[in-house]
Amino acid sequence: MTQATSPTNQPVQPPNRLVHGLDWHLDRVPQTWQPALETPQSQAALDKLRTLLDERLAAGATIFPGEPFRALHLTPPDTVNVVILGQDPYHGPGQAHGLAFSVPDNVPCPPSLRNILKERNNNFPERPPRRQHDLSDWAKKGVLLLNTALTVEQGKAASHSGLGWEAVTDALIQHVLTFSAPKVFMLWGRHAQQKEPLIQTHATGPVLTLKSNHPSPLSANRPPVPFIGCGHFRQAAVWLKEHGSA
After folding, report:
1. Which of 47, 88, 105, 134 is catalytic?
2. pTM of the model
3. How many C-beta atoms lie closer than 10 Å to residue 112's C-beta?
4. Please, what's the largest Cα pairwise distance for the chain?
5. In which band, very low, low, confident or very high, does the pLDDT at 155 lie, cut at 50, 70 and 90?
6. How far is residue 170 CA from its own chain's centroid?
7. In terms of Cα–Cα distance, which of 201, 175, 192 is closest to 227?
8. Which of 38, 39, 64, 91 has the smallest count of CB within 10 Å of its CB?
9. What is the pLDDT of residues 178-234, one digit of tens each?
10. Between β-strands 63-64 and 82-86, what pairing exists: parallel, antiparallel or unpaired?
């Protein structure tokens, strides 16, 4: 079968809007992640989210992404060596695809991701510069790209924050920490840094937390810890190698 293309001969990406109800997605989450979704806190939050998402879809709302749990499909919990926490998915058409900060390669690079790739390239001048916007390859190598809210409505940033997703994603973080392999948490911005007590409380093995301002252009170069120049990618690689997890 020939893949459909756009008038510019670029492959057409499938729609990234949510179509199926929450239960459809929950039934397909890999078994290795299911314990995190079965805690009382997760179950209570998911009950509320199930109703909310059904109501909003019935009302005609456009919700992104089409696969809220995609990060869990690409990164088994026992393989996680780096966790990068975002806040909520991109709220524009074609952008969010279930991985924090990542977008498909045929989508213009969002400003925060542009700074992330710039910092990565500056940290590893000996390597070819990364130009891909899609971070799926990172996810497959043990980088959990997790937003703290897993859905959002079109054009309404943070519209599903504070509605229950945070209890679910906290449980996912706790589940990752039950595996004792060394892990680096990259906590960029105040929102992500609020998870540090959770991380320290539940860690069962070596953990390194790296903190800086958010990579957004609004804060990436500002004090107290500018994102640009933070060196987190190099620090993570060195620390993981020292702990036998390079």
Report:
1. 88
2. 0.93
3. 22
4. 54
5. very high
6. 13
7. 192
8. 38
9. 999 999 999 999 999 999 999 999 999 999 999 999 999 999 999 999 999 999 999
10. unpaired
> How many residues can be counted in the chain?
246
pLDDT at 1: 32
pLDDT in tens, 21-60: 999 999 999 999 999 999 999 999 999 999 999 999 999 9
Cβ atoms of 117 and 26 within 8 Å: the answer is no
In sequence order, the 6+-apart residues with CB closer than 8 A to the CB of 106 are 10, 11, 13
The identity of residue 79, as a single letter, is T
- Per the annotation, the verdict on 88 as an active-site residue is yes
Q: What is the DSSP string of 60-126?
A: T--EE-S-TTHHHHHS-GGG--EEEEESS---STTT--SSTT---TTSPPPHHHHHHHHHHHHH-TT
Q: What is the CA radius of gyration of the chain?
A: 18
Cα–Cα distance, 117 to 69 (Å, whole number): 23
Q: DSSP secondary-structure letter at 209?
A: E
Tokens 């799926």 appear where? 136
Question: How far is 163 from 151, CA to CA, in rounded Å?
Answer: 10
